[in-house]
Design brief:
By secondary structure, this protein is of the alpha/beta class. The chain folds into 2 domains: 188 residues, no CATH class; 158 residues, GMP Synthetase, Chain A, domain 3 (2-Layer Sandwich), CATH 3.30.300. The chain is built from 12 helices and 14 strands. The strands form 3 sheets. An 8-stranded mixed beta sheet has the order 4-3-2-6-7-8-9-10. It has a 4-stranded mixed beta sheet with strand order 11-12-13-14, sandwiched between helices. It has a two-stranded parallel sheet with strand order 1-5. Strand 9 and strand 10 form a beta hairpin. Helix 10 packs across helix 11. The longest helix has 25 residues.
Length: 374
């Protein structure tokens, strides 16, 4: 009898630990906002749009899109509840799309407060800027592509692997927003016909206002100067040391790829300004060469030509961001680490200080492969 009572007692304890189903929500009755869009309309009214998958078997369109005018991101949920088929469920967003028109206003990032404050929301959605109306992207439903969230993430992730653009999550954007020694860089996309296209990388200032867009080549230079992660850095250079043999095509071009980039940065304060030394070392593999050269005898000479051209491009890029008074590389963090007393005086106006800084980039190239022919 005692054993039976003990078994009943253990069974009751196990039942108490089971999750109840009183407040269950069927997925068919939920509206999951996988993509959230924010933009300004022609009247400069704040608009919020969402894209949600449809799980109803009878529905021909597997994606539903809605757009409302609101005053805050959280209040827009009340407006969506008036038109969506199911109960709006938060915390499932994969992408946050922000219109360039909205990003031209300093301080726009305060709108994101609801996404950070709600513990149900994750901080892993990718933040993306859209050149053009955001709702044009939200309501895109190409028949030869997967669902919009998967389509967008695949395009961005593949571009990021090739260092064509950056990949910035909501958490990283918040960190950059609070970091005084670095400004934000996010992916910029647009529509080309019915296809989504990576336009480059959008650079923002210390108030998260859009400043300029850099190309895929400049994005690779940016990623090289930061802490290079995994991925390839394919580049094509036009070397002025060689003459072009064709009128319609410059044949003094060379392409290479590198998977190994090591970057070291140092900072100091000298003679009234911050000075930064950036040393970049890379092992490259030639993938294309349109001009004649004896690779057996002139390998080192070719390496020097490549180093010289890369250093010129790095210098041009540095001048470009200094003119915009932004620091997407994060030189300010090194200024704080190596020259804290001087940094402390200018931390609230780092963009102005960095514009007057001296940045020297030194590139060390080693050709480790040249393909199947010399």
């Amino acid at each position: 009898m005692t054993k039976k009572l003990f078994a009943v007692f253990i069974t009751c304890l196990a039942l108490l630990a089971l999750t109840g189903c009183k407040d269950q929500n069927l997925i068919e009755n939920l509206t999951l906002s996988l993509v959230i869009g924010m933009d300004l309309n022609e009247q400069n009214e704040f608009e919020v749009s969402i894209s949600s998958p449809v799980f109803n078997k009878e529905a021909k369109d597997k994606e539903e899109e809605f757009q409302v005018t609101s005053t805050t991101l959280r209040k827009s949920r009340d407006e969506f509840d008036k038109v969506v088929l199911g109960s709006t469920a938060g915390g499932k967003a994969e992408l946050i799309l922000v219109g360039k028109k909205l990003m031209r206003h300093p301080g726009w990032a305060t709108i994101l407060d609801a996404l950070y404050r709600d513990p149900k929301n994750t901080v892993t959605p990718r933040l993306v800027m859209v050149d053009g109306p955001v709702y044009d992207i939200i309501r895109l439903s190409p028949k030869d592509k997967p669902r919009l969230p998967l389509y967008l993430m695949k395009v961005i992730d593949m571009a990021y692997v090739r260092n064509v653009t950056v990949r910035t999550t909501l958490q990283q954007f918040y960190r950059h927003h609070k970091e005084k020694g670095m400004t934000s860089a996010i992916t910029e996309i647009g529509l080309k016909g019915r296809d989504i296209q990576i336009l480059g990388t959008a650079l923002l200032d210390d108030r998260e206002k859009y400043k300029l867009t850099i190309s895929s080549t400049e994005t690779k230079l940016l990623n090289m100067m930061k802490q290079p992660g995994k991925g390839a850095f394919p580049l094509t250079l036009q070397l002025p040391e060689f003459k072009s043999s064709l009128r319609f095509l410059p044949t003094n071009q060379l392409s290479f790829n590198t998977f190994s980039v090591k970057t070291r940065k140092k900072a100091r304060y000298d003679r009234g300004k911050f000075r930064f030394d950036v040393n970049i070392k890379m092992a490259i593999f030639l993938t294309e060469r349109l001009f004649p050269i004896d690779m057996r005898k002139e390998t080192r000479a070719l390496e020097r030509y490549i180093e010289s051209e890369l250093e010129r491009q790095f210098a041009d890029f540095i001048r470009k961001i200094q003119a915009a008074k932004i620091d997407p590389v994060g030189f300010g963090m090194y200024a704080r680490a190596y020259a804290y007393p001087q940094w402390k005086k200018v931390e609230d106006d780092w963009g102005e200080e960095f514009a007057d800084a001296e940045v020297n980039v030194k590139v060390d190239v080693e050709i480790q492969g040249m393909g199947a022919m010399k």
